[in-house]
Amino acid sequence: MDKMQTDILIIGGGAAGMSAAMSVAENSNLRVLIVDDNPTLGGQIWRSEMGKIKSPEAKKLIEKIEQNEIEILNKAQVFAQNDEKSLLAETPNGAVQMHFEKLILANGARERFLPFPGWTLPNVFGAGGLQALVKSGLSVENKRIVVSGTGPLLLAVAEYLKSKGAIILLISEQTSRMKLLKFGLGLWRIPKKFFEAIKLQSKLQRTVYLTNSFVIKAEGKENLEAVNIVQNGKNRRVECDFLACGFHLVPNIELALMLGCEIMDGNVLVDKFQETTLENVFCVGEPTGIGGVELSLTEGKIAGLSAIDKKEKAKELFTQKEKLQRFANALNETFSLRDELQSLPNEETIVCRCEDVTFGKIKDFNSFREAKLQARCGMGSCQGKICGSATEFLFDWKNESVRPPIFPVKLENLVD
Amino acid sequence: MKKIKLQINNESVSIQEGSTVATAIFESDAKTFRKSVSGENRFPLCGMGICFECRVTIDGVKHQRSCQILVREGMKIETDG
């Protein structure tokens, strides 16, 4: 097995991870290694488009990372702990052992998906999911698309798909107009966010944006043909080619859980210096609470400085972080899920897509563990990453027991 | 931009360099990515390597996430239909 040695190991090459890496590199001579499962750096928010990063901010950061000779291991999925100071990752060339002095977790987030009748039909995608596929070459030209779910991502995705020639039939947002207005007014306090919102709005001017609205059913014989949307008790059927549907984000906490970091309210618990409840293990960005790219960048800087014991310098960033944190809290509150979404699945609706476990088969259980052991819910390849966050909302279950490997790996790499 | 040639269920497909295998499958005649345990056709959902719905066989290796892997010249891909 290949072995790598570094001072600061960073898991995740998105905004938070790259920011942490630069923070270490600019303030010390220590070795830094970034490990990421994607083919290129950038994470989800700065996902490259056919191998090219578009955001000027991201480009600048990646350039700096290259100039500072920060080591990067791409296409590598961390799946287990080797010992207290080393982790194991699977790469296309086999397993790698990575030894470190300090560890910074920057695993990012994924979309929350909620089950509704027809959501397993081909051409029903996540909202960010469809955007990611288009960025890797999928054509949406002249495709009729409904964008639905909740969160600021819906607007960004709709605008992106439109710029690629898609016909956005409508955007269906589950939160209320009232909550959105309140949040929108709050943006005045953060001019950069405000102008971003205005820019998005103007690009989507002729697009129908429904609030208080959600998809209750997707229909189609083989592939998606239409969706049923409800708004204020009224139903409408919309024929479409694609549905892009996501319900905001869920933090990727599996690695932190496996290592034994304490979790609070679904997020990795950290102190002001981004240190987890484990010594020398830090956590930044979405796993500490969904907060967006700017908060991720700031937390990355703080963690980098903390990891090299420059705590006084880290403290200078606390005010900035608090401000961004307040914005994140307001955003999460605005897009919190309405209870009606819990009653979307019927008896036959699949909840666990890996094992095809239906809502009817699990609804009477008391915990995710029971559903796992007795109905195989969450026992498939994704290891409950999709149905776990769905059942957390549907039944208030916690899926907080993980066992290595946290991602499926080839047997040879496990044995090795 | 350079085109990459690969095989999907024995069909020749030519696609832009930098595309993922998932994109190439969308461009092909394949009816599905995988069949679920109860026989449903499944396509990618998350697009970022989390959901495992886009699993296919690549060069004989099963259960590869097609949304995370870039196309290479001469790749042989098999879907479940």
Report on this model:
The complex is a heterodimer of chains A (416) and B (81). Chain A has 416 residues and is α/β, with parallel strands linked by helices. Chain A folds into three domains: 2-109 and 250-331, FAD/NAD(P)-binding domain, CATH 3.50.50; 113-247, FAD/NAD(P)-binding domain (3-Layer(bba) Sandwich), CATH 3.50.50; 341-395, no CATH class. Helix content of chain A is 33%, strand content 24%. Chain A has helices at residues 15-27, 56-67, 127-135, 153-163, 177-186, 191-203, 254-259, 293-307, 311-315, 318-334, 359-362, 368-375, 387-395, 411-415; strands at 2-5, 8-11, 32-35, 71-73, 77-83, 86-91, 94-99, 102-105, 109-111, 124-125, 144-150, 167-173, 209-210, 213-219, 226-231, 234-239, 242-247, 249-251, 263-264, 267-268, 281-283, 350-352, 357-358. In chain A, helix 1 packs across helix 2, helix 1 (15-27) packs parallel to helix 8 and helix 5 runs antiparallel to helix 10. Chain B is mostly beta strands. Chain B has a single domain (3-78), classed as 2Fe-2S iron-sulphur cluster binding domain, sarcosine oxidase, alpha subunit, N-terminal domain (Ubiquitin-like (UB roll), Roll), CATH 3.10.20.440. Chain B is 9% helix and 35% strand. Chain B has one helix at 21-27, and strands at 3-8, 11-16, 34-35, 41-42, 55-58, 61-65, 76-78. In chain B, the strands form two sheets. In chain B, strands 2-1-7-5-6 form a five-stranded mixed β-sheet, covered by helices on one side. A two-stranded antiparallel sheet of chain B has the order 3-4. Chain B is globular. The model of chain B has no long low-confidence stretch (mean pLDDT 96). The interface between A and B is large, with 42 and 36 residues.
